[in-house]
Amino acid sequence: MADERHELAAQDDGRGADEPPRLSGEKRAKPTTARRKGQPTKESILPQESFTKAPKISAKSRTREEENELKRVRREAQRAAQRRRTPPKGPLGRWWRRVQSSPDRISLGMCIVALGVVYGDIGTSPLYTMQAFVAGQGGMARVDRAAVLGMLSLVFWSITLITTVKYVLVAMRIDNKGEGGIFALYTLVRHYGKWLAIPAMVGGAAFLADSVLTPAVSISSAVEGLKTIPVLTPIFRENGNLTMVITFVIILILFAVQSRGTERIGKVFGSVVMVWFAFLALIGIYCIGNDWSIFEALNPVYGIRFLFSPQNPVGLTIMGTVFLSTTGAEALYSDMGHVGRGNIYATWPFINIALVFNYFGQGAWILRNRDNKALQGVDGLNPFFQMMPTTVRYVAVILSVTAGVIASQALITGAFTMVSEATGLNWMPHLQVRYPARTRGQLYIPTINWVLCVATLTVLAIFKDSEHISAAYGLALTVTMITTTVLLADYIWHDGKRVFSLLFALVFLAIQILFFMASMAKFMHGGWFTMLLTAAILYIMYTWDVGTKVERSQRRHMTAKECLPALEMLHNDFRVPYYADNLVYLTSDAEMRRLDTDIFFSIFANRPKRARAWWAVSVQTTDAPYTRKYSVENFGTNYLFRVRMRLGFKVDQNVATYLHQIMHELIDSGELPKQPSIYPKVDEDPQIGTVTYVLVHKALMPESKIDSRGAFSLKVKYAIRKVAGSPIKWFGLAPYNPIVEVQPLFVSTRAVPKLTRVVLPSRKIKGGKHHKG
After folding, report:
1. For residues 536 and 38, which has the higher predicted lDDT (pLDDT)?
2. CATH architecture entry for 109-547
3. Other Cβ atoms within 10 Å of 45 Cβ, number
4. CA angle 158-159-163, nearest 5°?
5. What is the pLDDT of residue 284?
6. Going by C-beta distance under 8 Å and a sequence separation of 6 or more, which residues neighbour residue 682?
7. pTM, full prediction
8. Spans of all domains in the chain
């Protein structure tokens, strides 16, 4: 009744129920045009001076960064037009013109970035591969020419087949919009069979597990190289944990600078890596000297003969050592989206030649010094450092430390890409993603960055030094390589090249299963940790996938015909006070001509949420960096609006600010009734009424009819969601005190048996009368 009297009084006063109240003695002012700069109207009591600093829409359509990017694009377009006007000279010129106009285009700057981002991991393999070989053979005295040539042959052909053929020549031709990696590959083949999700999940989990170990083993092994410098040896001998402390500091700094983007990091690291690989090649050539007979190892017969030779004391497990020379190949494929395929094509020959020269240089040095008695008693002899003159060794240690840091970068950037792609597949929670560079492939995920940092430091704290960490290193990566081969073979098969697919699967599965079996020898010496970490990541992806499928199977939508009658009745029911002037729901549904049932039930649950306007808002991130577009569907009403914002990946996703712009434009066009507000608000906008944001989360009802696997997966998913971050922060909604509602997940429910009433026995009371209960 009180609400009815208020409504009648408002009508008798000559103003509508939707108009703001007037102050005592105030004459009614004529409506004024909505002002955009936050200045009060005649009906407002907002102060003239601003007390809050809420973000506003600028009159400019582009930021300074966009203007600079636009100028760069124009300059490139002018240069391209100039090149088109100039006819190419000869076949080479025509070929170069085709390359630069294709996805394989090459630029000097990005080639330098590629050196710094992609090759760090594979570039550190010469530090420990031949060291592990000599140790496995029992020392320098037990290494003969057949063993050295056999090892070099296995290393050369492993790099050639695994890295060059499988990844550079085959895998990198199979990309998803320029992105590489096992998840991008799965996106291309998933419609060929549901079972393909299994190798994709297992391989992705193994790659992320290896991303934790790589920084720890690469940086710690490089830092430990400082012990070989005579001046520093006494200091490290007195302080046993000094190498671990230095490694801790370097890892922290490395993860701290990730937010600046891989392009900036890559340009710094790229120059260093160029020097590093040039150094590897020159030292290798120096040690080869005039003994070019070492290149007999290019014959694969030497490798096969040594592998099955009785003089090989470790047997097939030698392949575990050979595999160390190929670490970084999977990261090369995963980082393709960061630097571009063409730039990897342009730089890989230089990298490959430098690696071959260095390995063969170490082999030549071993053959010359295998009878050197002074070296036979050296503990942990490393041919990489021993083959250098003493004066050069100082430079080598400094460069190796730097290369160890860069090796970690390759896996970190690959991990960002993998997690982003797993999120797109709904195998991991949605996390805040930043794009520090001008290309979408170069991304930064704050949550993953610091999870990796903590996990890497934990590994270092558990295993202490590189010797123990390396026992766990590489095993997980063999799993990733095997699963990538399965997915590549499936793609090639369905691409119509069935003979090649069978040959590809046969050759590479044989090699990589051999790698895996050899690496399993490490299981009890630390490999268990890698596999445990892989299993944990796999479990997160599996449960998130199952939980998402259960949720999606229950998602329902309503057409305008189904929801409008009830919404119109509530909108016109003056007995129900306004819950808010604008009630805004964030939704992941991008379809414009329907409404989530979650939103509908939220409006009518418990106390009906009457509003001047209800809004369902979705945000899509585009591949273009600076897109700012929106679409509106009003269903023929002035109170229900479906909004879809399309924002570029470089645009701040400040939903509240953009929604105010949309509201103003709808008011100006007459689609939205005016909402003048006289009271101060945090958004400083007197032309728009109060705005309340609502996020709807799901919860499983106790009596839900669902199997134990689905129920447990949902519980795990909801637990992960609590710690994964909130859209409230991502969309800049915190100042508006958004409401988080929990609704039951409407799965089938079991019938609950009814209660039986029990009559209480009668009892005597004073006066002799009986009383029930």
Report:
1. 536
2. Up-down Bundle (1.20)
3. 12
4. 115
5. 93
6. 52, 54, 735, 736
7. 0.74
8. 109-547, 556-744
